Amino acid sequence: MRRFAFEVGTYVQIEERILLITLVNPSHTALTLLDQHDRSVVEYSQEELEALFEEGTLRFVSFVGESLDVRIRPRSSEPLSTMPDKERVRVELRLSVIKAVDSLGLGTHSERIIVTDPATGEKVFTSRIQNAINEACYAAGQKPVTVQTYYNWRKLLSENEDVSALAGNFGNRGRKPYLDPVVEIKVQQALATAVEVSRAQTHLGARGRITPKKIINSLRQELPEEKLPSPSYIHQKIQQLPAYDRAVAQKGARAADNQFRMASRAEKPTACLDSVEYDETRLKLVLVDEEFGIPLGSPYLSWYVDRYSDAPPGFYVGYEPMSDVSTMAALRHACLPKGYMRKHYPDIRGSMCAGIPRSITLDNGLSQHGDTIQSAAKDLSIDIRYAPPYRAWFKGAVEGMHETLNRLLLEDQAGYVLRPQDQPSEYDPTTQACLGVRQFVRILHHWIADRYMQTPTGVFRRSPAEKWAEGISSIPPTFLPSVEEADLVFGILREGTLDHRGVRYENLFYLSDEMVEYRRLHGVSISVDVKVGPHMGRIYWRGPDGAWRSADADLYEYAWGRTLHNHKLVRNRALEVFRSDKLEALLESDRQLKEIARAALPMQLGLKRQKRIARAFGIGTETLLSNHQTDGKLECRNQSPAHFSETAAEDDGCLPRQKLRLTTFDTERRGE
Fold it and tell me: Can you give 556-590 as a three-state secondary structure string?
């Protein structure tokens, strides 16, 4: 997908007006824009434009004549991961060829060299550019192409500035699959089993390596002789394995770990967002429900830290266990501007940074290797790197931030487990954990924006805010074209059905005005792809034409702002108690679950079960900061049991107001 920045030459659409950015002051605080209709000149600040972008009023456009339709077009704006498999493989092949040629030195493209032809084994004369193209094609398991074809691909990429343009238009062509789908599944399973067997062996000799002959012999027990695939097909599938898995299969686990151990260790970022590190931990802090005063347990903190400036562009605080959900929630917060701070936290003077990272360093957990983060990384053109296990120094920036947060903020907050002045025998979370979830989120924003970002550290006594301003002077941060594209990129791909009731997903139906005409063109009942956004109120669906469209839930008031986990709990109880999942049964089930949470006493449950209650009702920054309320306020959602009103809390005496306490940040952070 294309990226955009608030820089000279960029077109933006504010409501119905198309504006061109013509001037940006050196500090990026004031921008001059030219109206393309009446040629009038208007001025905006950076913060005003970011706030309009977050609200959905502003969106980037590629050129003046671009259609203003909010639907995602299948070519110019479709993410790479949402393409059909054939088109995605074709784009990845052409990108690999372009990157291979770009890696050559200047002036060496036409140099003649002698290489060995892999097909015949003979020595042949060829050019360096043709040799690079051949190697890239062989690595992707494809037939080599000519230099002229490469230049045609290069022209398509430069003219459209979008990798989806490399997909071509082969919808009416194509070859029939020559291999039985059942046989193809058997081959994939055999390869996966062979890789896992090789991974379990420390040393892998010549007899233990994966070869086409061994795979075919293993398939003879399950397939008849006439359905066995050819050795060339098996070899092609082996070459399509990830580089690390292929190294494990050919050299063994220890040799593969040694080969990939130093990836990006010596690289240093030259600008902000060049390298961002991710980590997640459980905070040593017990938070409470603001209305009932019930301890919810220790929340999880997931955040990204920029290596160049040591500034955290995004974080997640909630009770969702460490998984791809928390990873994507923190990444979404990092990629979008923080315009809500000026509206909901007017007392905060500083600001938080934002932008799409160009490289992310993750742990080696299972969630980080899942399809969710890989799909988003392809859409945003993010390079993912994995830190070796048991090497905290590999992510020194984010690991040091945990120590800084504990030492300079959390230790002095009520509910810290344990503060230096507390004794384990004297600590009672039911009385001392008097810090609410929303109160802590506000304190965390305040500490990052006003204290951490503004405090000089290190030998040269420079603050993260100063280093961030210097780092974005050469390469400004980039953002997605609009919030709709962000919801699509960070959504989870699922399957659904479109019929006369709308698109069905998790027994909820979603409607839009264009579904009637769409069914008249493509059929009565259609299988569609569904992408779920941050809540159940809106989805994106794609039919046979490949275009993504948005649809809102029929039960709008019930589904808007509700998490998938909470909806499953409510529906299961409705089916169990009322044997129905209609609106009345869902609302009554939701009310009963709230009453159960209201009647739950701390001495009867314990922090482990209370933390599950918090997760069940979606308590976390991914819902608090998504502005799902119609008035845009950062209040608890209607279906949450922790509906909080500051006036009611003061009048009822349910919870004492937490005074904001921030330790003066006048010491250097450890590790500098």
Answer: HHHHCCCCHHHHHHHHHHHHHHCCCCCHHHHHHHH
User: CA angle, 134 as apex, 138 and 375 as ends, to 5°?
Assistant: 55
Pairing of β 508-511 and β 526-532: unpaired
Distance (Å, whole) CA 356 – CA 336 = 8
CA distance linking residue 602 with residue 581, whole number of Å: 31
What's the one-letter identity of residue 579? R
In this predicted model, what pLDDT tens digit does every residue of 439-453 receive, in sequence order?
788 888 888 888 888
Beta bridge partners of 601: none
| Alpha-carbon span 533 to 539, nearest angstrom | 6
Span 386-404, pLDDT tens digits:
876 655 556 656 666 656 6
Residues of the chain with CATH 3.30.420.10: 276-474
Give the gyration radius of the chain's Cα atoms: 28
Phi, psi (rounded to 5 degrees) for 467:
-70, -35
Place of tokens 């306490």: 661
Q: How far is the C-alpha of 407 from the C-alpha of 419, rounded, in Å? A: 10
Tell if the pTM clears 0.90, that is, is over it: no
For CATH 2.30.30.30, the residue range(s) in the chain are 1-77
**Sequence-separated (6 or more) residues with CB below 8 Å from residue 520:** none
pLDDT at 69: 41
Could you tell me which CATH number the domain at 276-474 has?
3.30.420.10
Domain 1-77 classification at class level = mainly beta
Backbone angles phi, psi at 505, to 5 degrees: -150, 125
What is the distance between the alpha carbons of residues 542 and 197, in angstroms, rounded to a whole number? 39
